[in-house]
Amino acid sequence: MKNYFAAALFMAASIAAAPAVPVYIAGREQPAAAVSEESGEAAVKPSAPEAPTENVTETASAAAEFTDESYKVLDAATGEVMEVAVRDYVIGAVCAEMPAAFPEEALKAQAVAAHTYAERQRRRERSSPTAELKGADFSNDTSKYQGYFTREQTEKFYGDKFQENYAKVTAAVDDVLPYILTYKDEPAIAAFHSMSSGKTESAENAWGTAVDYLVPVDSSCDISAPKYTDQKHFNRESLKYALETAFPGIVLGEDMAEWVKVLGTSDSGTVLKAQAGDREVTGNELRSALALRSACFEVSYPEGEAVFTTRGYGHGVGMSQYGAESMAADGSSWQDILKHYYPGCEITEQKKSL
Fold it and tell me: What are phi and psi of 271, to 5 degrees?
């Protein structure tokens, strides 16, 4: 499974730089689809009711406005810059970022977040191009940008369920394609993650820079998500290697139980300050060093090993995907989901780009 922690760090640096339209890098660090597959559990609740048939023509017409609009996507493998229709890109992003088995209202919320990301990034590249993108708006490198599947990749990913799943995702995207999240008339930083600790985290605690609408909100439904808690075990040698690799020159004493200590956490449970050997580090630094599922963790030392117990999956900022799934299954609309996880943001109808 891919580790998207680098994307969060890249995003944090972008927020700190804060141009007029700062870059947004995908805030979720693991595909929820991958999380679901890894868990081996059927944790998906029934889908929300389909949209009334009388809205189909209006929805199709609105979505059609974006069929001749495109994003420029750099293929990290070939170096080729691809022209991808806006609609196709958002469909491919949702397929890559959220299980098709999730309720339709959750898929719609994910579609708006994905579209918001793309618009924010495109505007940034127009005003301040990034040389490595070679004129593209973003790339398909998931260590830095949002996940995206081509239709061919989606067919391979879904296999025998391609027709059913692709149709469901496409219908969800078409229903919300004209809309993005905005804050003060600019595309918002629509960060998202797989599942929180039960309460989402602030951008300030996660990345060091406050963002008005990326603040802690209740997401207690995440506690019932698959693999909400997880443990990672280290023997003395493996922990020593990981710490010395991540923190060159670190001094570790003889007592392994003194090597890592949690010194302070946020209200959401994120480790803000910890002791690693002879130095003070952040929870995110330890998360990266030890490849933990989140920076919300506890450490214990039973029988000569170190055990890190994590809660949630991802950086915890913005929309929880499993929280969105739970809200949708309980009858919340995609608008309700977005307003809950991005308080203060507006849902704005987006016309064709200039």
Answer: -70, 115
Residue pair 195/314 in contact (Cβ under 8 Å)? The answer is yes
Distance CA 32, CA 30 (A): 6
Cβ atoms 195, 224 nearer than 8 A: no
Residue 186, phi then psi, degrees to nearest 5: -125, 150
pLDDT tens, position by position, 103-160:
999 999 999 999 999 999 999 999 999 999 999 999 989 888 989 999 999 999 999 9
Is the entire prediction scored with pTM above 0.90?
no
Helices assigned H by DSSP within 218-346: 236-246, 283-290, 321-329, 334-341
- Residue 24 tokens read as 């947004």
- Please choose, from the candidates 204, 215, 305, 309, the residue with its C-alpha nearest in 3D space to the C-alpha of residue 262: 309
In three-state secondary structure terms, 81 is: strand
For the stretch 13-25, pLDDT in tens is 344 433 333 333 3
The shares of helix, strand and coil residues in the chain, as percent rounded to the nearest 5, are 40, 20, 40
SS3 273: strand
Distances (CA, A) of 75 to 23, 78, 87, 213, 244: 19, 6, 18, 32, 35
According to DSSP, the residues that pair with 300 across neighbouring strands are 307
User: What does the alpha-carbon distance between residue 353 and residue 2 come to, in Å, rounded to a whole number?
Assistant: 33
For 243, the token pair is: 């710490």
- CA pair distance 53, 354, nearest whole angstrom: 32
Written as six digits, the tokens of 273 are 């300050």
Give strand pairing partners of 84: 71
pLDDT band at 238 (very low <50, low <70, confident <90, very high): very high
* Angstrom distance (rounded) from CA 278 to CA 273: 13
> Which token pair is 221?
């439904």
Q: What is residue 16's DSSP assignment?
A: H
For residue 38, the model assigns a pLDDT of: 29
DSSP 144: T
Q: Are the C-beta atoms of 196 and 215 separated by less than 8 Å?
A: no
